[in-house]
Amino acid sequence: MNVVYILLPVALLIAVGYLVLFIISVRKGQYDDTTTPAVRMLFDDEAEKQDDDEEQ
Amino acid sequence: MVDCTHCGLPVPAALVEPGSEQQFCCNGCRMVYRVIQGYGLERFYDLQELSDTKQAARTTDRQYREFDDPKFMELYLREAVSGLKTVELYLEGVHCAACVWLVEKTPSLLAGVHEVRLDLGKSMARVTWDPDRVQLCSIARNLDSLGYPVHPFRGVKIRDMRRKEDRALLIRIGVAGFCAGNIMLISFALYGGLFHGIAAEFRNLFHWAGLVISLPAVLWCAGLFYRSAWGAVRVRSTHMDIPISLGILTGFLWGVFSTVTGRGEVYYDSVTLLIFLLLVGRWVQRNQQRRAADASELLYSLAPASARLIVDGEIRESALESILPGAVVEVRAGDSVPVDGVVLEGSSSLNVSLLSGESRPAPVEPGGRVFAGTENLSSRLVVEVTGTGEDTRVGRLMQLVEEAGRRKAPVMRLADRISGWFVTAVLLLAAGTALLWWWIEPALAVEHAVALLVVTCPCALGLATPLAVSAAIGKASRLGILIKGGDVLERLAKPGRIVLDKTGTLTEGRSRLVRWIGDETVKADLAALERHSAHPVARALAGGIEPGKELLQATLVDARGGGIRGTVNGRPVVAGSPSYMRSYTGSFPEWVLTALDDVTSAGLTPVLVSRGGDVLALAGIGDPVRRDSGPTLLRIRESGWTTEILSGDHPAVVQAVAEELGIEPENAHGGRQPEEKLEYITAAVAADDRAVVMVGDGVNDAAALSAADVGVGVHGGAEAALSAADVFLTREGLSAVAELLEGARRTFRVIRLNLIFSLLYNLVGAALAIAGRIDPLAAAILMPVSSLTVITLSYRANTFRRIRDR
Do B121 and A26 touch (CB under 8 A)? Predict the structure, then answer.
């Protein structure tokens, strides 16, 4: 059971890591607009493909 | 049926081009199609398939010169990195994935544009560009040519502030969630210990860990609740946050005490979960209300921000802010007047209904005054500016609106009213428990009293109102009813007085042919002649009469001085006001006089029609009552509301409309100025305990809307009115008002049910605590179960429903 003394801080550290990432993403405005990114991903692929065609 | 290649709407039969692959419903679509093809952006049409909404694109011929005005730049532009500038623009007509793609392609079309990011939900585009290489006006023209008219977004500052608040709340929720989640893991070990035993060493470790992890949640995340609870205590009122803060703090402090002394129970898990759930509840409610408020602010951006300034005979579009009194501006037919001023050239008629409530168009001549917010109906005017912005009549009315809004007393919400006696009851119960156990087993007295305080901490009670309200607001917005504040629904729950504006609210707000007495055969002749005139009465007549099969050759002779003269198929036709006609035909026959009486007493404008010298017919022009006004008012009255009319129009017209809609004559008030409307509503609010609801559309109603318990702005109203209202409708017609009242009543029922259920859970918890049967595990189970009940009840409830035509 003594392993808890290591596991507890490690688990918390990992969780804190995610919390920090969350805070950074909020500060960067990733949650400001939750509708457009969902449709924007529809056309980014196509644009890249066209670029590839030009390169060939 | 042929669909338009660009927008997908049906193409009118007359415009179908046989043998062509591309068909267009209008020239706008044809032009947009060519522009898109010209840029090689055909993929727009593939993406458009993905969306289900179709809407006609329209382009304006605006030049957007005012976007390069120094004053404009100062107001709206912001510096970006390395000499670039950014601006937020509101785009009209954005509705699908294809629009996002097209708008964000702008950088590849115009050199110098660095980035365009479109927010589809808000229709806002953020443009970043290099001012040395490209002008903002050409970017705006470019977006316009793609079918998205551009408006500068006013209120960037407010939006930035709100965005900051939103982010801060999200971070609070994140931290609270982090604390609650991690403590829950630790608590599972402790719960296991309850059943199988746990070494005191580990028990202490877990308690200390819980204490440390819950610190940020209790000290920082929950600060929101303490602050509003303290605020309420200071002004000696009650608020839901008082019992919440009480529960959180007792639970936490007892936990600290137990941890430090090494005996007793800890409630860190319940406390942090409570904080997390309550914060999420607040977030949900805020977002729903924010959406409605945002929508009304965007409407404000649609108001004209520019005027056509005349300098040395040349016309320049210029930002409104840079126009000073003494300048000369042009107002084209169909435009709204952007300033207060005096007419120098041209005579026209104005639609003043939004400003004064008067339904008849007001004629203006050189030397006459015009006011911002009116609409120029028939021909071009040149106006010398006397006032702009806050110095206009509209501006002064808006100051009244703000004042009225500030004076409005906040209502005590049901949940807050309950919280008063809830706190008392909980404290009494806790004291009772302590006394009871002091007598049975003194060592456990404090322990059980604390358990009671924690278990009765009103999580579900705190969620009951926000969730029910935000679910209802979401459902209402799908019906085109945008509600800006949650307390609106509680105020509308009980029947009260509903005061309606007439012009544009009960009626359609524009002149139409309402009655025709006499010879039907001159109808077609009159319509053919009136088509040559742009006068509003002429347009009402031409639009209200179906063209006949016969081809009529109409020639206009004269259309000045209250009437129209011309020939149709060679026969002379004259139409006009009674005084105009008297000068042509002399006295009128008996039937015309009675018909005239009849028409004028109904509040209509009479137009006499003669052919070949004899008066043959009488047309009544008026502002017809909307088709759904009658049934809607009936429905509202049936549910116990009192209906009243408060209008700026002539009392005779108001009485006629009241009679048609079944409103008692003493409840129909006409001829009221905006200030008098405000006075009437303020007096009504002060005199009556019941809710006073004002429904209106014009600037003249705005102050009254803001002073009423609930102000409802109807579709098509002035921006000022919609932003002053607590609720605004994005759907044509009045039936949405009845839906609002009924929806509010059902929502209130859900709130009450929620409160009853959460009080029941608290009762169970309190009973267990008094019996000494509560432990942290029981508390941790009761809390989420009660919250889940409330969430389910709120989202399953069918609060807002569309009313089908009866």
Answer: no
Question: What are B108-164's pLDDT values in tens digits?
Answer: 878 888 888 888 877 888 899 988 888 888 888 888 887 788 888 776 777 788 888
**Segments forming the whole domain that contains residue B711:** 481-508+626-730
* pLDDT tens digit sequence for B87-101: 888 888 777 777 888
Identify the CATH number of the domain in which residue B491 sits. 3.40.50.1000
Residue B248: C-alpha distances to residues B165, B217, B226, B378, B746 (Å): 24, 10, 10, 67, 32
> Which residues in chain A are closer than 8 Å to B123, comparing Cβ atoms?
none
Under DSSP, the state recorded for B3 is B
Chain A residues close to B117, C-beta within 8 Å: 36
Say yes or no to pLDDT of B530 above 50: yes
Q: Within 10 Å of residue B313's Cβ, how many Cβ atoms?
A: 5
Specify whether B641 is located in the same domain as B759: no
What type of residue is B749? R
Residues in chain B with CB shorter than 8 Å from the CB of A1 are: 199, 202
Q: Which helix (H) or strand (E) holds B135?
A: none
Q: How far is residue B645's CA from residue B671's CA, in Å, rounded to a whole number? A: 11
Q: Taking residues B756-777, what's their average pLDDT?
A: 85
Tokens of B241: 């946050």
Q: How far is CA B233 from CA B226, B229, B245, B368, B487, in A?
A: 10, 6, 12, 58, 21
Instruction: Answer whether A1 sits within 8 Å of B181, measured CB to CB.
Output: no
- Look at residue B275 in the predicted model and tell me its pLDDT: 92
Question: Among the three residues B402, B422, B440, which one is the final residue of a domain in this structure?
Answer: B402
pLDDT higher than 80, residue B292: no
Are B169 and B268 found together in one domain? yes
Placement of tokens 């044809």 in the chain: B30
Q: How does residue B556 score in pLDDT terms, banded at 50, 70 and 90?
A: confident
Query: Has residue B22 been placed in a domain?
Result: no
Q: What is the pLDDT of residues B310-342, one digit of tens each?
A: 888 788 878 777 788 888 998 887 788 888 899
Tally of CA atoms within 13 A in the half-sphere of B455 that contains its CB: 32
Number of domains, chain B: 5
Partner residue facing A36 (CB), from B43, B47, B119: B119
Structure confidence at residue A53 (pLDDT): 45
A-interface mutation test, from B99, B115, B178, most A Cβ less than 10 A away: B178
The more confident residue out of B183 and B103 is B183
User: Looking at beta carbons, which residues of chain A come within 8 Å of B193?
Assistant: none
Q: Do B168 and B189 have their domain in common?
A: yes
Chain A residues near any Cβ of chain B (below 8 Å): 1, 4-5, 8, 11-12, 15-16, 18-19, 22-23, 26-27, 29, 31-36, 39-40, 42-43, 46
Query: Residues with Cβ < 8 Å from B765, sequence gap 6 or more?
Result: B452, B455, B456, B774, B778, B779, B782
| A45, pLDDT greater than 60 | no
Does the structure show a pLDDT above 70 at B279?
Answer: yes
Are residue B395 and residue B542 in the same domain, yes or no?
Answer: no
Residue A15 with chain B: CB contacts under 8 Å: 178, 181-182
Q: Does B192 touch chain A (CB under 8 A)?
A: no
In a domain, B432, yes or no: yes
Contact B564, B552 (CB under 8 A): no
Nearest to B780 by CA among B174, B217, B274: B274
Residue B176: the pLDDT is: 96
pLDDT digits (tens, 9 = 90+) for B720-757: 777 778 888 888 888 899 999 999 999 999 988 988 98
Q: Does B315 touch chain A (CB under 8 A)?
A: no
Q: Say yes or no for a CB contact (<8 Å) between B167 and A26.
A: yes
Cα–Cα distance, B88 to B154 (Å, whole number): 9
Give tens-digit pLDDT for B710-723. 999 888 777 777 77
